[in-house]
Write a structure and sequence with these properties.
about 350 residues; alpha+beta; five-stranded mixed β-sheet; globular
């Protein structure tokens, strides 16, 4: 009996007619995954930085467009808009300066739907034909929001219906004093409640006067604090100590772009940008708060406010000046310089880079 010509080949040896197996071993697969993970870890920070740079650029562009709108308003009406425009019914919420520049930010159609002689909560403005409940108040105005703010979302009423929408850019209304109805005097800033300011009133120079700066949507705040005087709190801790004397809300500040009160549409320079005002609430949590006394137009009492410019851009805020320029202001800016930049006719000497 003849033997098979391949009988001499070991069973363990590769078969001459068998195709070699292709693929990764488990060890090789784990190595590839580890390499990919390392590369992702190296690239992710760079991608995030690029995205943040794009968001910051977009934020600054929003401020430039708003600055142009302010000047277009002045060209058309011969005055800059007030931070809050009074309505016919005393004690009701004034319309914001941001709402008054709608025609100059491609919002003329929306502007024409508003009855500015009545509060935004009046049926004339909450039951506008063709619009949802609460009228224009819950609408998102893209130019007023920063892409880096994670809290940009509608503020809901008790039934879960969108009632208001926040904003990311506040008007400068003073150092601490905002408005005194007894004397009809304002905080000396670029914008004031119920006041139509003109360029010739800016003796400090438009390029050295703050117009707008970033604020955070849904900021914790305490309002209607009694006993505040013209003397600002000496420190952030002193400001936080005043919170229990007012009406505290965990997340309602800067949530109403239509409202012309500083707790919603403005900022003051009591503290430098991104200063933490640390208030520990009864729930055991610490909140970074804004404070104010009686709100503008609500009573005959003066309004004082420590409403800080804050940003989700690390270490800085973007700010627009009255000449239309936009600059990045760091947290470390000198407190006195920051206050000087908020006055329109304070006579301060402002020099150097800021």
């Amino acid at each position: 009996m003849k033997s098979c010509p391949f009988d001499h080949i070991s069973r363990d040896a590769p078969h001459p007619f068998r195709t070699p197996r292709l693929g990764f071993t488990l060890v090789e697969l784990l190595v590839v995954i580890a390499v990919i993970g390392t590369l992702v870890g190296l690239l992710l920070p760079a991608v995030q930085q690029a995205r943040e740079a794009a968001r910051r650029s977009s934020c600054q562009n929003n401020l430039r467009q708003l600055g142009i709108a302010l000047h277009n308003h002045e060209s058309a009406k011969n005055y800059f808009p007030p931070s809050g425009q009074a309505v016919a019914t005393a004690g009701n919420a004034p319309w914001s300066g941001q709402s008054l520049i709608l025609p100059y930010v491609e919002g003329d159609t929306l502007f024409k739907k508003i009855d500015f002689t009545k509060p935004y909560g009046d049926p004339a403005n909450t039951s506008i034909p063709g619009m949802a409940q609460y009228g224009v108040a819950p609408l998102r105005i893209d130019l007023l929001v920063c892409a880096s703010d994670p809290n940009i979302r509608p503020r809901l009423d008790g039934s879960g219906v969108a009632q208001h929408y926040p904003l990311s850019y506040g008007l400068c209304t003073g150092v601490f004093k905002v408005w005194d109805p007894a004397t009809s005097t304002d905080g000396g800033a670029a914008f004031a409640p119920f006041t139509k300011l003109r360029p010739n009133g800016f003796s400090d120079g438009l390029s050295k006067t703050l117009a707008m700066s970033e604020v955070k949507g849904f900021t914790p705040r305490s309002q209607d604090i009694s006993g505040l005087t013209a003397t600002p709190p000496a420190s952030a801790a002193d400001a936080a100590a005043l919170v229990p004397s007012g009406s505290f809300s965990i997340d309602s500040g800067h949530t109403e772009w239509v409202c012309g009160r500083t707790v919603h549409n403005g900022f003051t320079t009591t503290f430098p940008p991104n200063t933490v005002v640390p208030y520990t609430h009864s729930d055991g949590r610490q909140y970074d708060v804004d404070i104010c006394s009686s709100r503008e137009g609500l009573s005959s009492t003066a309004t004082y406010a420590a409403v800080t410019s804050r940003s989700h851009h690390a270490g800085v805020v973007s700010s627009a000046f009255m000449d239309g320029s936009v600059r990045t202001v760091t947290n470390g800016i000198d407190a006195g310089l920051w206050k000087a930049l908020s006055t329109r006719a304070g006579g301060e000497v402002v020099a150097g880079d800021y």
